[in-house]
Each structure stands twice: as structure tokens, then as C-alpha cells.
Specification:
Elements (H helix, E strand, L loop, with lengths): L4 H19 L2 H29 L2 E4 L10 E4 L1 H28 L5 H20 L3 H20 L5 H31 L4 H8 L6 H18 L8 H7 L2 H34 L3 H21 L4 H22 L2 H32 L4 H4 L7 H15 L5 H15 L3 H27 L4 H4 L6 H19 L2 H16 L3
Antiparallel strand pairs: 1-2
Helix pairs in contact: 1-2, 1-4, 2-3, 2-4, 3-4, 3-10, 3-13, 3-19, 3-20, 4-5, 4-10, 5-6, 5-10, 6-7, 6-8, 6-9, 7-10, 8-10, 9-10, 9-12, 10-12, 10-13, 10-20, 11-12, 11-17, 12-13, 12-16, 12-17, 13-15, 13-16, 13-19, 13-20, 15-17, 15-19, 16-17, 16-19
Length: 492
């Protein structure tokens, strides 16, 4: 069985999605989701251990050779992403039962869990596949199910948000598949490793440059790189809380992984960053995302929208690390990918608990709620401190690596901008703190109480993780450094 773990990583959630769709009833569908989420976490942990012990795992579907078949390839880079996605899913699962019951119409709950598991399978498939077109298939599997998850919210604006995401996602997928088609034309293969081998002879041709441009733009739409982030704020704000937590913590992170895989492992850092003007473009867009999104976040009246815009800015930190194209910079980007997933999962899960008790998530609804829900608000507060980058939290580790990387390449001004950007984060986080702790309780918040135990424990667990990974960085920064080294070495 152990030799088929790569296939089981995708098959298990797909089979779970089918069962959830068949049973339809809320409780059995939720139970299936819990079992599947734990199973994929165990599988991803076993894969990571095997990679650390044995090196790269190559799994040939159906026994076909990679030149004509599909290869699942697991190395330290995507093993880390698989662990992240499955761990987030496992933490969300117990929280989901009551949250979904309160936010999704009962006749749709079975379908909600089915689409959730399909999205999980799609994201795991993107991370594990070593085939460019297979990545497109899984990209669309995860995207289509994500549109459905967002649209199942009770707020009618969720339908508009899902439609906007659908349009932008379709454009991104079209750009990506055109780029892959051009690569296939030039190399005669869809296997990422073989593409990397064969690009050395044709990488300076116009077709390869156009392919890189199409793939760059297509994946940038999926990861919400500024200014291609239009779909993200509404999608996060109006989706059911469980969908928001899952998408914020995993979907954009997997898209960033795919971006990094193509840029570093397939095309190669030497070609992309040394021969082409990608660094100034990516640095400019990243800095614009960090400052632009944070500025917009300060003026939001809806707390979920505020933190959604914050996510656009935090994606800017990750892409900034990729743009520096050094081991330290890439480590900073990857460790922030991991840390931000935990931070935003904690924040949005906490807001989901608030919505469960109050029925609203605007500032006027949650004024003074810290006095009624002190544990939940404290957990969100800890995650917010990590978002700022306070020493002793996971967010500080990420920004430290990025600042050091900026200084290493001689860009002192960039290190200064990273520090300055944290001040903008202080503004919108401070506004949130002032509202929930120092204002008189609103009528909605006055009767609120802490959420049930099964919702509170996952929130506190994620908040504690943001502190733990700010102190013990072996799993996050240590693994991210190994992954950064592997990416820079490429697949050739």
C-alpha cells in the first residue's frame, strides 16, 4: 500500500466527495469529511517522511513511462505543500459541522461537503503531479468546486462573488493552458522534468518566451497577484466561513507553489531572472500589493473584506521572496507561505465563530465583543500580531528572512519598505483591536458567548501554532530552506 500513497493522496478525497454526494444528509457527509481529512493528513505526513529518508518519489500512473503517461513526483517542495493543505483540512473538519449548519441551507450541506472534498482533491493533485496538463486539469477541478463553495453562502452577493471568480479563473486557466500548449509544441512532452531537460536547447526562442508570459499571467490570476486580485476580496467576504478559511489558507498557496515550480524548476532561475526583466516587474507588483492592499484594508467596514485585502498584501510578501531569487529570499517567501496559511486560517476561523454567534461580521456588529468572547478574540489577536510580524510569532520569522535577503542583494531600501509596510498592518489590526476590546458592546455582541468547544479548539490550536512556529522554526523555516535549495537547483 505504501508504494501507492501518491495516488491515494488524490483518490481518497475524490472517493469521499462521491460518498458525501450520495448520502447528502449533513451529519454523515460531515463525518466522511472528517475521516477523509485525517486520512490525507496521514498520507501526506508519510510521504514527507519517505522523501526525507529516500529522496524524490516518482510514481507512474498505470505503470506508463513518464514520456507517454502521467507521473506523480514528490520532492521536499511539494511534500511540504501537501502537508500544509492536508493539515489545514484536518483542522477545519471539526470546526465545520456547526459553522456549515448555520450558514448553508440544509438541503445543500451534503453538496457543500462534496465540493469541499473535490476542491481538496484538486489542490492536492496540483501539488503532487509532475505533468503540466494534469496540473491544468486539477487546477480546474479545484476552481470549479471553489466557485460552488462560494456560491452556497446565504448572502446573495456570494453568487456575484462566485461569478467574478469564475470569469477571472477561466481567463487565468486559458492563459495557462495556452502556455502549456506552446511548451508542448517546442519540447514534445508534458512532463515537467522532461520539459526542463529539453528547454535548454530552445529556451531563447520566441515561442518559449511567449509560453513563459502566458503561464506567468495565468497563474498570477489564480494566486491573486496585484493587480489581478479583483476576484479575491468578494470571494473571501461572502463565501461561507468554512470555504473562506479553506480557500484563504490553501488555494492561493498552491497556486504560488505552481508558479514557483514553473519559474524555478522548469524554466530555471538563471533564464527567468538573469536573462529576462522578471525581477523588477515582480518586485514592483509585490511592493504595490503590500502597500496598496494594506491601504485599502484600513478603510473597510466589513471585517472579512478587510482581512481579505490583507491577504492580497501578504501574497505580495511571498512573491517578493520569489522575486529575490536567492536561497534566503526564496526561503522567506516559502516560510511566509506556510506561516500565512496558519495565520489567516486562525483569523477567518475566529471570524466564522463570531458570525456563528452574532450573525454579522461588520465593525458595527462586533463592537465590544471581546468582553463576551475573550478566548476567541484573544486567539484572533495573537494571529493578528503574527500578521504584523511581532517578534516571537511566525510572521516575524518570515519578514526577518525577507529583510535579510534584501540586504544580501544590496537593496537596503527594500528592507526598509518591508518594515514600513508592517506599520500599515498595525493600522488596520489596531482598528480591529479598538473595535472589539475598547468600544461599548453592540446589541448583537451584548448577548454573544464563546462558540462551542468543537469550534473553539481548532481556533486556539491555530493561534498557538503561530506562536510555536515563531519560536521553533525547524519544520517551517528549516524545511522551507531545503525546499528553496531544491527549487533553485531545478529539475534538470
Amino acid at each position: 500500500m505504501s508504494e501507492h500513497l501518491p495516488a491515494l493522496q488524490v483518490v481518497v478525497p475524490l472517493f469521499g466527495a462521491l460518498l458525501a454526494a450520495l448520502v447528502r444528509r449533513p451529519w454523515p457527509a460531515w463525518l466522511i469529511t472528517v475521516v477523509v481529512s485525517i486520512a490525507v493528513l496521514v498520507i501526506s505526513a508519510m510521504l514527507l517522511v519517505r522523501v526525507l529518508d529516500e529522496g524524490v518519489i516518482s510514481y507512474h500512473l498505470g505503470g506508463w513511462d513518464p514520456t507517454i503517461g502521467i507521473e506523480y513526483r514528490v520532492d521536499i517542495v511539494n511534500a511540504l505543500i501537501l502537508l500544509l493543505v492536508s493539515a489545514v483540512a484536518a483542522v477545519i473538519a471539526p470546526f465545520a459541522r456547526l459553522s456549515v449548519l448555520s450558514e448553508v441551507p440544509e438541503d445543500r450541506i451534503g453538496w457543500f461537503y462534496s465540493m469541499y472534498l473535490v476542491a481538496l482533491a484538486g489542490l492536492l493533485g496540483i501539488a503532487i503531479t509532475g505533468d503540466a496538463f494534469n496540473a491544468f486539469v486539477f487546477l480546474e477541478v479545484s476552481s470549479l468546486s471553489s466557485y460552488a463553495l462560494i456560491a452556497m453562502g446565504r448572502d446573495r452577493r456570494a453568487l456575484v462573488a462566485a461569478y467574478q471568480y469564475l470569469i477571472m479563473g477561466t481567463i487565468g486557466a486559458t492563459f495557462y493552458v495556452i502556455g502549456v500548449g506552446l511548451l508542448y509544441t517546442m519540447t514534445g512532452t508534458l512532463n515537467l522534468g522532461l520539459i526542463a531537460d529539453r528547454l535548454a536547447d530552445v529556451e531563447s526562442t520566441r515561442s518559449v518566451l511567449v509560453a513563459l508570459a502566458f503561464i506567468f499571467v495565468g497563474i498570477s490570476l489564480k494566486l491573486a497577484l496585484f493587480p489581478l486580485h479583483y476576484w479575491l476580496p468578494n470571494a473571501y467576504a461572502y463565501a461561507p466561513s468554512v470555504a473562506t478559511v479553506f480557500l484563504a489558507a490553501t488555494a492561493t498557496k498552491v497556486a504560488i507553489y505552481l508558479f514557483a515550480r514553473f519559474v524555478f524548476s522548469v524554466f530555471g532561475a538563471g533564464f527567468v531572472f538573469a536573462d529576462l526583466p522578471v525581477t523588477p516587474v515582480l518586485v514592483t507588483l509585490s511592493v504595490a500589493a503590500i502597500f496598496g492592499a494594506a491601504t485599502v484594508a484600513v478603510f473597510q467596514s466589513d471585517v472579512k473584506r478587510m482581512f481579505a485585502y490583507s491577504s492580497v498584501g501578504q501574497i505580495g510578501y511571498i512573491t517578493l521572496g520569489l522575486a529575490l531569487a536567492t536561497v534566503t529570499g526564496l526561503t522567506g517567501g516559502l516560510v511566509h507561505l506556510l506561516n500565512h496559511a496558519i495565520i489567516k486560517a486562525a483569523i477567518f476561523m475566529g471570524l466564522g465563530a463570531v458570525f456563528f454567534r452574532v450573525g454579522g461580521i461588520e465593525f458595527k456588529d462586533i463592537a465590544g465583543i471581546g468582553r463576551r468572547m475573550p478566548i476567541t478574540m484573544s486567539a484572533i489577536g495573537i494571529a493578528c500580531l503574527s500578521l504584523i510580524g511581532v517578534p516571537g510569532t511566525a510572521g516575524f520569522v518570515s519578514k526577518w528572512y525577507l529583510i535579510v535577503a534584501s540586504i544580501e542583494v544590496g537593496w537596503w531600501w527594500l528592507g526598509f519598505l518591508i518594515v514600513l509596510s508592517s506599520m500599515l498592518t498595525v493600522l488596520y489590526v489596531g482598528r480591529f483591536f479598538e473595535c472589539v476590546w475598547f468600544r461599548e458592546p453592540s446589541p448583537e455582541a451584548a448577548t454573544a458567548t464563546e462558540p462551542p468547544f468543537e469550534m473553539l479548539v481548532p481556533i486556539c490550536l491555530l493561534a498557538a501554532a503561530t506562536v510555536y512556529f515563531g519560536i521553533d522554526t525547524e519544520l517551517t523555516a528549516g524545511m522551507a530552506q531545503r525546499a528553496a535549495t531544491a527549487l533553485l537547483e531545478g529539475l534538470r
